Amino acid sequence: MKQLDAERQMRRRKRKNTIFHALFLSSTLFGVIALGMLLIQILSDGLGWLNWEFLTNNASRKAEKSGIKAAIAGTLWMMSITAPLSFIIGVSTAIYLEEYAKKNWFNRFIQTNIANLAGVPSIVYGLLGLTIFVRVFGFGKSVLAGSLTMTLLILPIIIVASQEAIKAIPVTQRNASFALGANRWQTIIRVVLPSALPGIMTGSILSFSRAVGETAPLIVVGAVAYITTLPSGVFDKFTVMPIQIYTWANLPQEEFHHVAAAGIIVLLFMLLSMNAIAIFLRNKYQKKN
Amino acid sequence: MFNSWLRKGSIILAAFVLLFSLAACGTESKETPTTEGAKEQEGSSMELSGEINIDGSSTVFPISQAVAEEFMALYNDVNVTVNLSGSSNGFKALIAGEIEIADASRQIKDKEVDALKAEGKEAVEMPVAFDGITVVINPENDWATEMTVDELKQIWEGGSTVTKWSDVRAEWPNEPIKLYGPGPASGTFEYFTGAINGTKNESRKDYTPSEDDNVLVTGVSRDKYAMGYFGFSYYVENQNKLAAVSIKVDESAVAVAPSVETIKDGTYKPLSRPIYIYPVKSSLSQPEIQEFLKYYMSEEGQALAEEVGYVALPAEMYEENLSMLP
């Protein structure tokens, strides 16, 4: 009798395990299938429209003449300011908070605020950028104003990701460095940062990807929807890929929805290459350490 | 240890330098064709140069973009940029002096006129085309092809109790009516509620709203018992998937279907509305803006408005616009 009970219990536990196994597997598949369907739909819609003319033409009222040149250039310009700026400020902030800052109420206050900032809707950053960079600082609706707004938008994410990476370095490694006579700065630059770098890079490049894909704050800050000149300096007007795609997708003509899909393919390609760089760098440095 | 870090550091630095020099190269190499293209055609262009910045309604955007595209083909040294941040934001940018022309799917409000005045500016109202807001039903819907303004009001007014088609007319199917329309931020919403419900921005709220008109098109085209409204150009592009409701001003009037002719001659009532551009008055003396506005109001400009799905105004309205140029 007792054995029968035990057997029943065992069966129940196994069944539970099977159920949760299936549940977790289906959760995983849900994401994969959704991504697969998205890719198939976008590729079948847009691949036929993707050609060299599409990459080198400007936007047009005619679908077959439309291209994404100005938007690609605008996105590259914006990222060439946003990426280094947010990386430098973000990593420096993370080092300060983790290595130098004392655990007092003021630093806890900063810490809480950074975590909260990471959750602020992006349109709010747009309005902030419009008020501060465009109007108060007088940068106008320029590449610079857009880039600085995007820097603000992704800073909290970079800070939090870098902090996590720095936190993951065992305290014994730091102590070993101090024991050898190194001061805090030497410890940070030679012990902490090299080990934390893969995590910092992954977090940063993923947030750069977010900046590449954002539309709403840039519409507010004044990236324009139709422009035929490329920026030649940071005070020039510009457009970015997501805005161009959004504009096309909103038009009534069916052909423009294909053009939008072709634009999405270019954007996805850019995002996936950035993620690939992130993974590559992470693997490279993980092996060495 | 130090050396190994130095090595790692330099690799990362190199990677970054490579990344951004690639980015910079990308932009530079793409810039060359434009300048070459501009040089090639320099002979054909007249001596106009400068920048024209337009922002405002997304409804007017396709016309302004088309006019800008053709205008820049004529005058290579003029750069026109067009944005679509919405009618209200367009006026704000006009007040802030960031643009020279505002696109608007509604008339300028008194407080916007005042704000302009405070800056020492004035805007000139120029209607550029008609848009006929179209009430659409599924092509399989064979009962509601004609409706009166009163019936539309019954369906769409705030606090409406209509839930089934039979609530509007007893002989119509006893099936739930599914409603689709633009969201409250849209100029189309404002005009429709004003013209049909009598009070601007007052509407029932239990319908499916979307700022993306293509979502509304898809919604109505998939449901036999659906109904929605949006700009004429979205109906024209989707005539195979949708049917337009002919509208009677009152019980005794003739039902009029939206078409280029009925919108143009004003018989499609009350949902035909003009859309506008508002150049700032002080900029009218600039030759490139003057020429741009002339092109906007020319026969080519009107043809472009029709090409992108709007209805050109009667000729005398364009002439009136032109008479406002210095």
UniProtKB/TrEMBL annotation, chain A:
Ranges for domain ABC transmembrane type-1 come to: 72-278
Q: How is this protein situated with respect to the membrane?
A: Multi-pass membrane protein
Enumerate the UniProt keywords alphabetically.
Cell membrane, Membrane, Transmembrane, Transmembrane helix, Transport
Q: Which NCBIfam families match?
A: 3a0107s02c
Q: Name one GO cellular component term.
A: plasma membrane
InterPro entries in UniProt = MetI-like (IPR000515), MetI-like_sf (IPR035906), Phosphate_PstA (IPR005672)
Natural source organism: Chengkuizengella marina
Q: Which SUPFAM superfamilies match?
A: MetI-like (SSF161098)
Q: Which PROSITE patterns match?
A: ABC_TM1
This entry's Gene Ontology molecular function terms read: phosphate transmembrane transporter activity
Q: Could you tell me which Gene3D superfamilies the record lists for this protein? A: MetI-like
List the subcellular locations.
Cell membrane
> What is the similarity comment for this entry?
Belongs to the binding-protein-dependent transport system permease family. CysTW subfamily.
**Name under which the protein is recorded:** Phosphate transport system permease protein PstA
> Which lineage do the record's taxonomy fields give for this organism?
Bacteria, Bacillati, Bacillota, Bacilli, Bacillales
UniProtKB/TrEMBL annotation, chain B:
SUPFAM superfamilies documented for this protein: Periplasmic binding protein-like II
Q: Please give the InterPro entries that the UniProt record associates with this protein.
A: PBP_domain (IPR024370), Phos-bd (IPR011862), Phosphate_ABC_transporter (IPR050811)
Gene3D superfamilies, per this entry? Periplasmic binding protein-like II
Residue ranges of domain PBP in the record: 49-300
Question: Which coarse location class applies to the principal site listed for this UniProt protein?
Answer: membrane
What is one term from the GO cellular component aspect held by the record? plasma membrane
Statement: the UniProt record of this protein carries the keyword Transport: yes
Q: Which CDD domains match?
A: PBP2_phosphate_like_2
The biological process GO terms on file are: phosphate ion transport
Protein family according to the UniProt entry: Belongs to the PstS family.
Role, per record: Involved in the system for phosphate transport across the cytoplasmic membrane.
PANTHER family reported in the protein's UniProt record = PERIPLASMIC PHOSPHATE BINDING COMPONENT OF PHOSPHATE ABC TRANSPORTER (PTHR30570), PHOSPHATE-BINDING PROTEIN PSTS (PTHR30570:SF1)
**Protein name per its UniProtKB record:** Phosphate-binding protein
The species is: Chengkuizengella marina
